[in-house]
């Protein structure tokens, strides 16, 4: 999400590598992908919430957001680049413009549809569980997929041209789904309540893989149409450990005793929840593999990638522990919901690259770089991306 007060998790993300050879996903040959398209929430958003929601200007529209790479706020919920930015650069592509800022521009090299605060489920789901008043935005995954449908005619105009075009495109669907749980927690739902939502939320994400031309009423067909259009390499990513290690959660939902924390200092219960979500997601991805044997469907372990530097921060160049926030308003983790990053009373560290945690909810550019590098070169994609 955009605001540090709104807690976010890296939930089921989907990485869809197209018809190019698997080895070409390494970025070693930068001419293989000619475009890239991204869907998700604040962990992927490059400016859509900033345009669509005036409230976001009070947070991500202010310095010190964007201080490291862009030297100005861009709508990204970090001090600099996100995973999607590093992947684009790895494949020799430009940073993706936000869809709501792309009118009149040539989008053939790609667009970012992600919106901070977005959900995998549509508003009726939250009405049903009594949490609709907590929604920051109605620009859910199905809306983002609808945006993609609108620009498709400007990308290709026949089945043959679309197959050729998408065979050289990279699709990122996610991360998305974490806010679905966050809104439930904001409404006082328990972890047991949230677990009952997992199959539905995970299905919404994998369904999106089956129909990138889905509408709000029907998003149950993306992979089939993508495959027909030319896509062959698809992957799904699970939740990383940011919820249980988030300084926001550690501050607002502290454990009752030491046994509630693991050796890193993260909350065990949210760790279990993340793992449960990831297991369900993997089951659904395995079903997609059986349904579409001609496609390469990968699972990316964001959880493992994030926990690698949470457990051994110095090995990755982080001199500060994984629980302390770079930009915040004090307290044991430097997170204060009354003085969150960008708000009066908060302060920013002098060197964000020493930290993994940026604002109590989102990560620093350095941490996102480590995750992106693990996705491309590490052991966290199965089958291997490279």
Automatic annotation (TrEMBL):
Fetch the Gene3D superfamilies from UniProt. Answer: SGNH hydrolase
Could you give a GO molecular-function term held by this entry? hydrolase activity, acting on ester bonds
Transmembrane residues, as ranges? none
The record's annotation in Pfam families points to:
Lipase_GDSL
What top-level branch of life does the organism fall under? Answer: Eukaryota
Full protein name: GDSL esterase/lipase
What are the alphabetically sorted keywords of the record? Answer: Glycoprotein, Hydrolase, Signal
């Amino acid at each position: 999400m955009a605001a540090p007060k709104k807690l976010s998790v890296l939930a089921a993300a989907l990485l869809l590598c197209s018809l190019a050879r698997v080895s070409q996903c390494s970025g070693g040959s930068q001419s293989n992908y000619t475009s890239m398209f991204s869907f998700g929430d604040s962990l992927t958003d490059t400016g859509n919430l900033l345009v669509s929601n005036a409230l976001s200007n009070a947070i991500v529209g202010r310095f010190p957001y964007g201080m490291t790479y862009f030297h100005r706020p861009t709508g990204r919920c970090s001090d600099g680049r996100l995973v999607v930015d590093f992947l684009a650069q790895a494949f020799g592509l430009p940073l993706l413009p936000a869809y709501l800022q792309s009118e009149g521009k040539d989008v053939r090299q790609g667009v970012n549809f992600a919106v901070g605060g977005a959900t995998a489920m549509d508003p009726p789901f939250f009405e049903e569980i009594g949490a609709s008043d907590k929604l920051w935005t109605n620009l859910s995954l199905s809306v983002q997929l609808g945006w993609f449908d609108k620009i498709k005619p400007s990308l290709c105009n026949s089945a043959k041209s679309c197959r050729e075009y998408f065979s050289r495109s990279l699709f990122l669907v996610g991360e998305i789904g974490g806010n679905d749980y966050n809104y439930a927690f904001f409404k006082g739902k328990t972890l047991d309540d949230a677990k009952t939502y997992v199959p539905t939320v995970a299905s919404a994400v994998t369904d999106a893989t089956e129909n990138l031309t889905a509408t709000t009423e029907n998003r149950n067909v993306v992979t089939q149409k993508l495959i027909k259009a030319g896509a062959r390499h698809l992957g799904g990513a699970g939740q990383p450990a940011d919820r249980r290690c988030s300084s926001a959660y550690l501050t607002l939902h502290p454990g009752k005793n030491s046994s509630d924390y693991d050796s890193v200092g993260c909350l065990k219960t949210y760790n279990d929840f993340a793992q449960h979500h990831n297991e369900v997601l993997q089951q659904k991805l395995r079903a997609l593999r059986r349904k579409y044997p001609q496609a390469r469907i990968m699972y990316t372990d964001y959880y493992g990638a994030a926990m690698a530097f949470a457990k051994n921060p110095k090995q990755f160049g982080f001199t500060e522990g994984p629980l302390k926030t770079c930009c915040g308003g004090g307290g044991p983790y430097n997170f204060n919901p009354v003085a969150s990053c960008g708000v009066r009373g908060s302060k920013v560290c002098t060197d964000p690259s020493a930290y993994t945690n940026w604002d109590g909810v989102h990560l620093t550019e350095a941490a996102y770089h480590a995750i992106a590098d693990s996705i491309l070169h590490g052991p966290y994609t199965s089958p291997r991306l490279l």
